[in-house]
Amino acid sequence: MINLLGTICAILLVFLVLAIRYIHHSRKDNQRYQALLDSIPDLAWVKDKQHRFVVVNQAFRHIWGVEDPNWLIGKDDYSLSPPDLAAKYQADDQSVINNAKTMRYESNFEHTQDGERWMELIKVPVYIKKQIIGTAGIARDISERKSAEARLSWLALHDPLSQLGNRSFLTQQLNQKIAAALPFCLWLIDLDHFKRINDALGHRAGDQALTQVAYNLSNLGTEVFRLGGDEFVLLDEFTHADRINHTLTQLLNIPVIIEGLKFNQAFTAGQVSFPNDGTSAEQLLKHADVALYEGKALGRGHIRRFEASMATQAVRQLELERDLRSALQNKQFRLAYQPQVELATQQLIGLEALLRWHHPERGEIRPADFIPFAEKTGIICAIGEWALDQAIIELRHWDQLGLPLVPISVNVSALQLDIPHFAHSVITRLNKLPKHLRGKIALELTESTLMHEQALENVHALSAAAIPLYMDDFGTGYSNLSIISQLGLSKLKFDRSLIQNVPNNNAHQKVCSALLDLAAALELEVIAEGVETLEEAQWLLEQGVLYAQGFWFSHPLESSQVINYLGKSALNSHKLD
């Protein structure tokens, strides 16, 4: 802007010199100076003290549609402009004369013949022998700059994909409504499983889906905003809440059509109201997010109304997330190891590494109380890396002690398998081990880890590197058997829910027998988890199950206890006949 002003001023100074010479020279000289003035691309003119035009250049005449170079000379603004504008221009000229100061401003010229234009104007007093004899002006067309500024201003408050207001605009609107103290409702909407569209058809198709959803939401007659990703916000009067809830459910259950394919795009929403659920934009959005999270926990597809008790739970979750990150940094995690044995001989055949957390204030925290939340927040990826590294460290230590070693199986999260270079990072770690130890680290996967293409790529890479792979909790998920047969698995692990009281449960017996037949067809060995009684162990042995783990054989052992346990050649207690 400063450079532009400097340029205009420089042009204006040249113009003034030419104009003054133009006025005081002969006709022949005037023609030469007029030609120079006409070469200036900006509008330029000089008026006398009565506001009559003395000099105008070609650009000025062109914008007003004046062909005769002499027609304007001696006339004033009333010959060109409507009376109100002409009066304003003359008032500006008089102010420049009276104050002997430069005037600069921007103006929208809607009266020009070729459409609306924004012009930047500079008017200065014209002197001869220190006496003001009139005014000179120059104007530059800044329409493109104004258009760019308007576009930037729009982009600052809107989402270019959906054309909806963005988070900044939402915050502005919320602050205005809160200042007005009028009750209203807010809905935070998250599309369920939207990632599948991007995964299946690409991001362009995902953008089309978002555009369709934005259009559907706009038909609600409410204020609609897109926060980014697949998150939207609605604002409406408090009295309209029931109608919006009803219509919202109907609208977002309308399938989106992408490349001729229909996708039933469901949603989950968190609903809050002002002033009941918050008195600031930040608090309302935070509580809406809490309600949304609770809705997802119920199985998605819900509009969840915020309740005060949810805020307490949200604080606890934030504290848990903070404590989990702190636990990782402060080495509060450790591994315990549950023995896996051969049923017929009770010989040790492996150890499963289990995560344990001793909180400095709350004491021992059950895995069931923190692992699911670690999965939801993504912290499980860092914890999983630590667990693998710790198992490797302890395996090396036991080897240095000369203990007889068995494979250690380490659990792998579905989130870890979705990391593109996960397999490479595991293979790199294991390749640093001595050759005789590389096969002593196994990975335990769950059926849910095989839902995405990236996970399958990682599993294939791990299998190709001859890393033992166990499928955990087999029989409780929705496995694609054709995929399982191609994964290079080492063992299947039956979940405790199938084993519990199996000798006396006919239904469990049938399921286990069918799964054992399936395992045999896949040529995979089975480890039964959660064996807690002699009767369960005997029944499994009779069915041909080779391996088991559970409290009947041993509780999980601390690392120091494993050293003693490995020193034994066999388990003598609870030996089966």
Task: Describe what you observe in this structure.
The chain is of the alpha/beta class. It folds into 3 domains: 2-143, PAS domain (Beta-Lactamase); 158-306, Alpha-Beta Plaits (2-Layer Sandwich); 328-566, Alpha-Beta Barrel (TIM Barrel), CATH 3.20.20. The strands form 4 sheets. It has an 8-stranded mixed β-barrel, surrounded by 5 helices. The chain has a 5-stranded antiparallel sheet with strand order 2-1-5-4-3, with helices on both faces. A hairpin with a 5-residue loop joins β13 (333-342) and β14 (348-359). The radius of gyration is 39 Å and the shape is elongated. The N and C termini lie far apart (94 Å). Residues 569-577 have low confidence and may be disordered.
Give the CATH class of the largest domain.
Alpha Beta
Structural class: alpha/beta
Instruction: Identify the CATH homologous superfamily of the largest domain.
Output: EAL domain
* CA-atom Rg in angstroms: 39 Å
Strand order of the largest sheet: 13-14-16-17-18-19-20-21
- The percent range for strand residues is 15-25%
State the helix count: 21
Q: Determine the fraction of residues in helical runs and give it as a percent range.
A: 40-55%
- Compute the average pLDDT: 84
Overall domain count: 3
How many runs of DSSP E, i.e. beta strands? 21
CATH fold description of the largest domain: TIM Barrel
Characterize the quaternary organization of these chains: single chain
- Overall geometry comes to elongated
Tell me briefly what this model is:
By secondary structure, the chain is an alpha/beta fold. It has an 8-stranded mixed barrel with strand order 13-14-16-17-18-19-20-21, surrounded by 5 helices. Strands 2-1-5-4-3 form a 5-stranded antiparallel sheet, with helices on both faces. Helix 1 (2-24) packs antiparallel against helix 2, helix 7 packs across helix 8 and helix 15 (422-431) packs parallel to helix 16 (453-464).
